[in-house]
Amino acid sequence: MRFRDGVTVSAATPTLTLDVALVGGGIMSATLGTFLQQIEPGWSIGLFENLKRAGLESSDPWNNAGTGHSALCELNYSPAGPDGSVDPKKALGINEQFQLTRQFYSWAVSQSVVKEPQSFIHPLPHMSFVIGEDNRRYLKTRHDSLSANTLFDTMEYTEDLDQIREWAPLVSEGRTHKNVAASRVVGGTDVDFGALSSQLVDSLAAKGADVRFEHRVTNIARSGSGWRLTVKNKVSAQTFFVDAKFVFVGAGGGALPLLQKSGIDEIKGFGGFPVSGEFLRCTNEEVINRHEAKVYGQASVGAPPMSVPHLDTRYVDGKKALMFGPYGGFSPKFLKTGKLWDLPGSVRTSNLVPMLAVAKDNLDLVKYLVTELMKTRNQQMEAMREYYPAANLQDWELITAGQRVQVIKKDPKKGGVLQFGTEVIASADGSISGLLGASPGASTATPIMLGLLKRCFPNQFAGWEDKLKEMVPTLGHTLNQDSALYQQTKESTDRVLHLA
Ligand SMILES: Cc1cc2nc3c(=O)[nH]c(=O)nc-3n(C[C@H](O)[C@H](O)[C@H](O)COP(=O)(O)OP(=O)(O)OC[C@H]3O[C@@H](n4cnc5c(N)ncnc54)[C@H](O)[C@@H]3O)c2cc1C
Q1: Is 26 in the pocket of ligand 1 (CB under 6 A)?
Q2: Residue 439 contacts by C-beta under 8 Å, 6 or more apart in sequence?
Q3: How far is the CA of 136 from the centre of ligand 1 (A)?
Q4: Measured distance CA(147)–CA(198) in Å, rounded
Q5: What is the number of the ligand 1 atom nearest to the C-alpha of 30?
Q6: Ranges of each domain in the chain
Q7: Do 119 and 199 form a contact (C-beta atoms < 8 A)?
Q8: Which parts of the chain span the membrane according to its record (predicted)?
Q9: pLDDT tens track for 188-235
Q10: 26: CA distance to ligand 1 center in Å?
């Protein structure tokens, strides 16, 4: 039999039998594999990654912004309502999710599953910065609404440029605007999701998982009560089968086509809208060393929520860095290392209506992406000067960010809608699942994978809870409603992760 991508298999093709097959070595598979290895140490686990190492696609530190998303500074998680008020609900939900993620990291460090915390996480103030009266009023309302909650009670607010200079000197340098405002939470984080994925996957392998890099999964088909994966070893060009009882398609942008190949009903009607991006990376050490924060602003009209501009300190391979962006763009690829055929190849009769409806209803987004694509280097610098007025063109280089594939799904009224969050797809029997979408992304890998375990293994989950609570102690609690538990948990994770 010959598949479209040129892979040939026959009756003599060798077969590997596993309990669990993880497709892709990004933060999602790495997190799920770590949970499964702890709660079911007897299960055989295999991980198949197309690239040379784990964490090289969207999870790579230069492909994302490394923000430990907790809604401390990202204004898109707390938009103003029609009456100007700010509902804290969504921001609280995002923050609660990151509290679980912090506990998982803390467990991983304390158990030597990963190396020292500085190899992947750093404390970093999270700031929001706005210009103009409407934005100032909004930021003040947002501060008052969020800071009344336990999870946000350390949020500071100022309209004083001298205070902003103290918090982030680059933001005030050369600024002539008078009507500015900023908020800040000192306890934010920068996370190198690439380093974390790679260390988690190394640990999986060290504890017996069959981890194979440069192995591409080319097909997934039903086989009895489980699944048969066709896997191509890119080095030897050999193809083999993997028979697994449970499959997780953690292939990032590559998840949609693989789930479509599996033929499960649950993927029907879903499509993907790829958004590419670029960042400006600072090359001047002196400038890099004068900034120590993630500074998020307001998105432009029509911009997707995750394209909010931000001036970010990063820590990559232990070295401090600074970047600004993202600048949006369009490419039909579903992965940075993907193919131009990815988008057209994902169109099916079942998702054609939703995809056309999204194209028709999102002209603002299309306009935004086209405008971004047409921007000259000088125009890109102008966008950055909103945040760093004295920025000098010579100090910055352009880098290509990771691809995001936004979820398109059926909608009974509109035909189809574009969704900016993530969506777990799972077959009715729970034997195969996958993750579509991007935001809030890597920061929520822990709660997303815990939710996936509950959904795919409803009969086993209760029996796993004690073990899971060793890894994520406040699982099942709402920390915003229990300030004593929150303080105690925060102090202990801060101590282990060297965040205090
Ligand atoms: C510009 C940008 C900025 C972002 N900023 C942030 C941020 O600040 N904070 C945050 O939390 N999140 C952020 N995200 C989102 C975050 O990067 C992603 O949600 C997260 O990395 C996704 O992890 P993943 O494991 O699903 O995918 P990936 O990391 O992409 O991993 C998927 C893996 O699957 C492999 N693969 C694909 N197809 C196959 C196949 N057929 N066979 C075998 N292997 C395959 C790929 O090579 C890849 O290694 C950002 C994303 C982008 C693009």
Answers
A1: yes
A2: 69, 305, 306, 404, 420, 421, 422
A3: 34
A4: 36
A5: 25
A6: 15-479
A7: yes
A8: none
A9: 999 999 999 999 999 999 999 999 999 999 999 999 989 999 999 999
A10: 6
